[in-house]
Amino acid sequence: MKFMLDAGHGFNTAGKRSFDGMREYEFTRKVAAFARDMLASYQNVTVYFAHSDDRDVPLQERTNAANRLNVDAYVSIHANAFGSTWNDANGIETYVYTTNHQETYQLAQKVQNNMVSLTGLKSRGVKTANFHVLRETKMPAILVECGFMTNRNEAALMRTDDYQRKCAQAIVNALAAQYNLTKIQAPTPQPPTPTPPSNPAQPPVRSGLYKVQAGAFSEKSNADAHVRKLKSDGFAAFVFTDGLYKVQAGAFSERKNAEDLVARLKAKGYQAFIFTD
């Protein structure tokens, strides 16, 4: 399956920000990134981004790319807005094109239900709209509004990793259910090899390093894209494979150094953990 995730707008799109200065794209790009990483745990899934951190990609370019790549579904991620001051408009709503087929509506309903269930926000329902990304795409396409930037409480939620991950998980849950995605099976753990008693006269020798993994993907293109993103954020990273394409961000002889790197990665929104040979 091929999916395109579209983080709405761009860093410099005029007007697309909360009254306290949060850009819509700051939120939507994080949701898209979390969703991409979550989808990497499913078999035979390729994820494309319609957006770019380098520029505000025009809508026609986004839909042209989706049609050229012949993706199976297009999900546009947004934050809603109402009025010119903080107000009480609130909740989640999902849009489909004014004339849509059953598969599109089913996907929209799954996203809407999952989003409301995971975030706890009010459901505003599935609606129709003549939006470009819904009209000009040749595959099932939906647009989800993940709350209101003009609502003080919901804007504060959008700044948090927890809320961003919940929105991403809702999208992934819906795609997995709609397209019967299958999880990649983790290898069966092997029983540990007994460690021979150490010579009390000598300290034990550890041959392995403390390594930091920052992603695992079934498709090499997704791993390569993740490496490029890590490097753009100032981290050294490369891809290695043992069945999955895994991204390593560092290796250290001292565990504390590895823990420090994991903390810095998580502060930037990446998932990371330490492993040894």
Topology of this structure?
Blueprint: E1 2-7, H1 24-39, E2 46-49, H2 59-69, E3 73-80, E4 92-96, H3 102-119, E5 123-128, H4 132-135, E6 141-148, H5 152-158, H6 161-178, E7 210-217, H7 220-232, E8 238-241, E9 245-252, H8 255-267, E10 273-276
Write up this protein:
This protein has 277 residues and is an alpha/beta fold. The protein has two domains: 2-178, Zn-dependent exopeptidases (Aminopeptidase, 3-Layer(aba) Sandwich); 210-276, Alpha-Beta Plaits, CATH 3.30.70.1070. It is 36% helix and 22% strand. The chain has eight helices and ten strands. The protein has helices at 24-39, 59-69, 102-119, 132-135, 152-158, 161-178, 220-232, 255-267; strands spanning 2-7, 46-49, 73-80, 92-96, 123-128, 141-148, 210-217, 238-241, 245-252, 273-276. The strands form two sheets. A six-stranded mixed sheet has the order 2-1-3-6-4-5, sandwiched between helices. Strand 4 (92-96), helix 3 and strand 5 (123-128) form a beta-alpha-beta unit. Helix 1 packs across helix 6. The longest helix is centred in the middle third of the chain and has 18 residues, at 102-119. It is globular and about 65 Å long. Mean pLDDT is 89; it is low at 200-207.
